[in-house]
């Protein structure tokens, strides 16, 4: 409800009564009464959803000292939401239908036709395939063993002789399988003329004659090596040609034109015959040749020169997994071989010395005048093992070496050297 008041009269005479145009007198106060409908305020739903009803807010009064601060604390209630656990349904496995008829071949002859049609399940391997007969053991090796085997028409097989078993065991050691790259073997010495190239050739032939993979002998002697003269030459190419053509060598057939192959399947890569050119074969050149050899060979034998401080020797020793130190049978030859071990130990190759094998070449002069057992005892205290290489007329000429023409005792020594070297090579290597 609203009320409005208004005073009448002339402003010039305050005491005169107000009047209308028709001369009627008006009262001094007039009151109007208006009744307004009371409509309550209803908040919209979006405002009601965010309204804070339970917290009272005190209005802020600005004073001369500045506005006052009122802290409002809002309390949030945490509502834990528990996820519903999935209900695992057990798989329904339908039962197999019961067969109306049981199929069997019991009581039927082979090849007999069933009176009722057979299902495909009756075609089993036991029915169709005849089990292989157990094969007989191969004929034994050895005179008496073979004689007894033939006399009994193969019914009695006592196995190989002791010599045959030892030979096969040695073949198994030489033919050990390698994984993870080429194994490098360095043949070193500080003295010339002790048969280092001959030992390198014998070692390579003994390995290549047994192993099923490829074996190569690399002549890395910067002083005009003669390794290629120990086998029948089939090419005039040298290590220099490999360095030059390395970027274009993509397959073994291309590399094969640069090497000579022996009857034992030993591949030989020659050095340059010109001393001035061979001297230029340095560390970088050897690394190029070794990288190419790693693509095609499992074992690489490096015939090193006498210059142990030459850069080629440094690259050879860095790649070597094992070394063979060649010693003659004289006092100075044995002493220089021992000094070679000392130099290797002093220059960070002590692990190669511990794994080294010494080849004692007894074909050199003075062998009959010294005590070879004392030389062997000395090296046994420093290296892993030692092998004595006997004198052989086929090796004394210093020319071609035909593995089949060697004396049996010489071949046995070469095979023993190869087995010892392979024993020291890692079977697996991480690339």
UniProtKB/TrEMBL annotation:
Pfam family, one: CbiA
Superkingdom of the organism of origin: Bacteria
Region of interest (Disordered), ranges: 1-24
Domain spans labelled CobQ/CobB/MinD/ParA nucleotide binding: 185-295
InterPro entries per UniProt: CobQ/CobB/MinD/ParA_Nub-bd_dom, P-loop_NTPase, ParA/MinD_ATPase
Stretches assigned to coiled coil: none
Alphabetical list of Gene3D superfamilies matching this protein: P-loop containing nucleotide triphosphate hydrolases
Protein name in UniProt: MinD/ParA family protein
Organism (species): Antiquaquibacter soli
């Amino acid at each position: 409800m609203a009320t409005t008041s208004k005073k009448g009269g002339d402003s010039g005479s305050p005491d005169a009564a107000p009047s209308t145009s028709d001369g009627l007198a008006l009262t001094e106060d007039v009151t109007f009464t208006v009744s307004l409908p009371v409509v309550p305020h209803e908040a919209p739903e979006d405002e009601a959803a965010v309204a804070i009803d339970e917290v009272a807010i005190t209005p802020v009064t600005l004073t001369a000292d500045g506005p006052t601060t009122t802290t409002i604390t809002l309390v949030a209630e945490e509502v834990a939401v528990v996820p519903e656990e999935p209900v695992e349904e057990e798989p329904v496995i339908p039962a197999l239908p019961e067969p109306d008829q049981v199929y069997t071949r019991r009581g039927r002859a082979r090849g007999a036709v069933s009176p009722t049609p057979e299902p495909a399940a009756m075609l089993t391997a036991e029915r169709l395939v005849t089990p292989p007969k157990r094969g007989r053991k191969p004929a034994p090796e050895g005179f008496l063993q073979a004689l007894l085997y033939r006399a009994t028409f193969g019914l009695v097989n006592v196995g190989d002789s002791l010599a045959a078993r030892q030979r096969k065991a040695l073949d198994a050691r030489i033919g050990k399988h390698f994984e993870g790259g080429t194994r490098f073997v360095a043949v070193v010495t500080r003295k010339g003329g002790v048969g280092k190239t001959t030992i390198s050739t014998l070692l390579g032939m003994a390995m290549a004659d047994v192993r099923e993979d490829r074996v190569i002998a690399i002549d890395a002697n910067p002083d005009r090596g003669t390794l290629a003269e120990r086998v029948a030459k089939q090419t005039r190419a040298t290590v220099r040609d490999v360095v030059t053509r390395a970027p274009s060598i993509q397959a073994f057939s291309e590399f094969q034109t640069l090497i000579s192959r022996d009857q034992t399947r030993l591949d030989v890569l020659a050095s340059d015959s010109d001393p001035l050119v061979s001297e230029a074969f340095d560390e970088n050149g050897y690394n190029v040749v070794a990288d190419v050899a790693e693509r095609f060979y499992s074992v690489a034998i490096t015939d090193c020169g006498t210059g142990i401080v030459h850069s080629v020797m440094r690259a050879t020793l860095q790649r070597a997994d094992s070394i063979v130190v060649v010693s003659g049978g004289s006092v100075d030859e044995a002493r220089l071989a021992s000094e070679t071990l000392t130099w290797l130990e002093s220059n960070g190759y002590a692990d190669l010395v511990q794994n080294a094998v010494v080849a004692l070449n007894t074909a050199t002069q003075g062998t009959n005048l010294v005590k070879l057992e004392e030389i062997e005892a000395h090296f046994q205290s420093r290296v892993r093992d030692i092998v004595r290489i006997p004198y052989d007329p086929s090796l004394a000429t210093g020319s071609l070496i035909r593995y089949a023409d060697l004396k049996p005792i010489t071949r046995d020594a070469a095979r023993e050297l190869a087995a010892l070297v392979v024993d020291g090579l890692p079977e697996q290597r991480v690339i």
